[in-house]
Design brief:
The structure is a homodimer. Chain A has about 210 residues and is an all-alpha fold. Chain A has helices at about 5-15, 25-45, 50-55, 60-65, 70-95, 100-115, 120-130, 135-155, 165-190, 195-210. The first copy, chain A, is elongated. Mean pLDDT of chain A is about 90; it is low at about 1-10. The interface between A and B is large, with 38 and 38 residues.
Chain lengths: ~210, ~210
C-alpha cells in the first residue's frame, strides 16, 4: 500500500508544495489517506469532515493542513491513491503468466480480490464523478491506456489477432475495463463469488474474442 | 418515450396511489419526468428543487404533488423511466436481426445512439447509486437479467456454445453490460464516435467469445 507513495506518487498525493520530505512524513500521509478512505467510504463526501478524518488517523488538525489544502484535495488524492493501489495489486499478479490471456485472467482475479477486500473503492471512485470529475476521468483513462498497451504488445508479439488496429484496441480496452468493473461490482462488492471462477468465465470473452 | 407510461409503467412512475387516470394526466406526468431529467441532469440531485422542476414542466406546484410525494420519489421514478426508455429503444432495434450476434450488435448500436442523444442518462443513473441505491441496483439487475435471458435463448437454439451454464451466462451478461456501459461513456458521452463502428468492434468479444 505504501508502494505508490515510495515510488514518487507523493508528488500528486499531497497538495502542491506539501509533499512529505521524510519517511515519517510519508507514514503520516499514508495514515491520513487510509483514514480518508474509511471516512469517505462510509459517509460519502458531503457528510465527511476533515476533523473526522484527523480523528480516525490520530493526527492533529494542523497536521492535515501540512499535507492537504482542503477536503476536495484529500478526496482527489485518495482517488489517485486507490487507482495506484489497484495498479500495484494487479501488476505483480501478472508476473509468471504463461502468456497474454493467462496474464489477463490473473489480472482480473487480482482485481476481484482487491474489490472484495476494499468494497469502498467503488463508492469512492463512483462519487468522484460528481465531486472531482477530472480525477474520475483520469482514473479510467489511465487504466484504459494501460490495458490497450498490453493488448498492443500482445498483438505485436503475435499472441492475438494481427488485424486489430490501435483504434480497435482502444475500444476493446474500454469494453474489457467495463466488463471487469461490472463483474467486480456484482460478484465481489454485492456478493462474494470465487474470484478465480468469475475471472475464468469472464476471460472467455477476451480469450476467444481476441484470438488469432 | 410515452411507451413505458402507456404500457402500464405508470404504476411505478407516480408515487403510490397517485397514478394518472386519464390520457391528459399521463401527458402531465410525462412533462414532469422530462423536466426532472433536465433539472437533475444539469444540476445534480442536491441542487435540484421541486419548484424548478415544475417551472421547467410548466405545471403548478400542486400538480407535482398530485403525482409525487417528494424529490426522492420523482428521482426514483426518473431512474425507472430512463431504464424503461433504454429498453424500449433497444428492443425494436433487434427486430429483423439475422441471428443472435447480429441482434446483440444492433442492440449495442441502438444503446450507443441513445447515450449520445441523452448524455444526462449516465449522470442520473450514476447519481442514483448515492441518492436511491435500490433503484440503481434494480436498473442494473433488471438489465443483466434481460441480457442473460437472451444469451440463454441463443444457447438453447444452438446459436452459441452449449457448454455455458446459466451461472456462466449471468457472469457473461454482467461483463457484456459493463462493456456496453463503458464504451457508451467513452465513445458516446465523452466523444461522439460512430456508434455502428464501436458496436462492431465491441461485438467481436461476444461473437467469438460465445461462439460454438
Amino acid at each position: 500500500m505504501g508502494q505508490s507513495v515510495r515510488n514518487g506518487a507523493q508528488v500528486s498525493a499531497a497538495s502542491d508544495g506539501k509533499a512529505p520530505r521524510t519517511a515519517r512524513g510519508e507514514r503520516t500521509l499514508r495514515k491520513i489517506l487510509d483514514a480518508a478512505r474509511g471516512e469517505f467510504g462510509e459517509r460519502g463526501f458531503a457528510d465527511s469532515s476533515i476533523v473526522a478524518i484527523t480523528q480516525r488517523a490520530g493526527v492533529a488538525l494542523g497536521t492535515f493542513y501540512t499535507y492537504f489544502d482542503s477536503k476536495e484535495a484529500v478526496f482527489r488524492a485518495l482517488v489517485q491513491d486507490m487507482s495506484s493501489q489497484v495498479r500495484d495489486r494487479v501488476a505483480p499478479a501478472m508476473e509468471g503468466a504463461t502468456g497474454f490471456f493467462d496474464g489477463e485472467r490473473r489480472a482480473l482475479a487480482a482485481f476481484l480480490r482487491f474489490a472484495r477486500e476494499h468494497r469502498d473503492v467503488y463508492r469512492i471512485i463512483d462519487e468522484a464523478e460528481f465531486v472531482e470529475h477530472a480525477a474520475y476521468r483520469e482514473h479510467y483513462e489511465t487504466t484504459a491506456i494501460r490495458i490497450a498497451a498490453r493488448f498492443a504488445a500482445a498483438r505485436d508479439k503475435g499472441e492475438i489477432a494481427a488485424d486489430l488496429s490501435d483504434e480497435d484496441l482502444e475500444i476493446l480496452a474500454w469494453a474489457d475495463m467495463g466488463a471487469n468493473v461490472f463483474v467486480g461490482l456484482r460478484f465481489s462488492v454485492w456478493a462474494s463469488t470465487d474470484p478465480d471462477h468469475v475471472a475464468e468465465v469472464t476471460n472467455r470473452l477476451l480469450t476467444k474474442g481476441l484470438a488469432r
